[in-house]
Design goal:
The protein is mainly α. The chain is built from eleven helices and no strands. Helix 9 packs antiparallel against helix 11. The radius of gyration is 22 Å and the shape is elongated.
Length: about 280
């Protein structure tokens, strides 16, 4: 009981932290004094101060503004990639699990093809083909993460299609597509939501790594990963350049994982009873 209360308290704090980070990132243009790409060489590499709460970078840009705008990019990539992966993986897994037979064999072989490649290596190869940019980055990360959702949805649909309410729907002559999308999939939102909660920090971390090695977000845009890469080059002389973006990235990933753990405790797959 005490452990459950502690985990619930951590989850509440996590949701609060995520809300604050999301709101400040969205409100960045209105709560920052400087533009994220405004250069001022005379104020380059200034330590944190009242004028620049997180200091300035080698080009004199305000790090506070760049961190908030970088949060917008990182969070947008994390959420949009997860939603795109949900569409690709959800449709593929639902059709494979419900139809079975040749459909299941063909679609799952496609899933296995993507699954055998290391995700980051495949993302790098896709970026070479799609081009380095926000659109190419989202597509590359989505095409490397949809297979996990496809396998999850397939397994859940294969279990749900044998449930009594599905048999009753078939007996009443309900169309197969309606059974799948109206009765089965709504009951799977619990495990799918939990998977997405863990997928979002994975995507943010992957984007940060790709940006860190120069294959992710390109100037003049910034993300937490690209800011951390810039700060790493000057770590010994100006540690705050890495401390602030890296610290906020760490806090965000930790909060998302705590929130995902709590959702997993609440989730009970295929528990609800669908009405016909």
């Amino acid at each position: 009981m005490r452990d459950r209360r502690r985990r619930s308290r951590f989850a509440s704090w996590s949701w609060g932290i995520l809300a604050v980070i999301a709101v400040t990132a969205l409100a960045a243009p209105w709560i920052t004094r400087h533009s994220y790409d405004e250069q001022n060489i005379e104020e380059r590499l200034q330590p944190p101060s009242w004028q620049h709460p997180m200091g300035t970078d080698p080009l004199g840009r305000d790090l506070y503004s760049r961190v908030l705008h970088g949060g917008r990019v990182s969070l947008w990539i994390g959420f949009s990639t997860a939603l795109l992966a949900l569409v690709l993986g959800g449709v593929t897994g639902a059709i494979a699990g419900y139809r079975g037979g040749i459909w299941d064999a063909i679609l799952m072989r496609c899933v296995d093809f993507f699954f055998i490649f290391p995700s980051l290596l495949l993302a790098i190869l896709l970026l070479v083909v799609l081009g380095r940019g926000l659109t190419g980055l989202v597509l590359a990360l989505a095409l490397t993460s949809w297979v996990t959702i496809a396998r999850l949805v397939r397994g859940q649909v294969m279990q749900a299609r044998e449930m009594p309410y599905v048999e009753a729907a078939r007996a009443l002559g309900v169309r197969e597509s309606r059974i799948l999308f109206r009765h089965i999939l709504p009951n799977l939102w619990g495990p799918i939501l939990v998977t997405l909660t863990f997928q979002i920090p994975t995507n943010i971390l992957a984007e940060s790594f790709l940006s860190f090695i120069g294959l992710g977000v390109q100037p003049p845009h910034a993300s937490w990963g690209s800011l951390a890469a810039e700060g790493f080059r000057a770590l010994q002389s100006y540690p705050y350049l890495l401390l602030f973006p890296g610290g906020i990235l760490f806090i965000t990933l930790l909060a998302l994982n705590f929130a995902g753990d709590r959702l997993r405790d609440w989730s009970d797959p295929v528990r609800q009873v669908s009405t016909i």
